[in-house]
Amino acid sequence: MAAKTANVTARIQPDIKESAEAILEELGIPVSVFIDMTYRQVIATNGVPFELKTSKALVTRDTMTDAQFDSMMKTGLAQAVSDDSSLAKDVFVELRKRV
Hints:
mainly alpha
């Protein structure tokens, strides 16, 4: 008798899905097997099978001195004047790689 199965459905960003699936393919691990492995580790560790922590505190205007804020603004203005900028879509791609 075959084992019963259940479906898992999740919505994620397409580029994250493609990148992860490419790595899993290189490793020879089907997505369904990876999900099964992950669920089994949740059960075995009675929690998430990797460390979850927040990154260092984000610098906000409230935590900056006026001098720090002015310096950051001058740097940004100099970058804008010299056209030292990146497209927003490229910046977000780089940010997603870090997450």
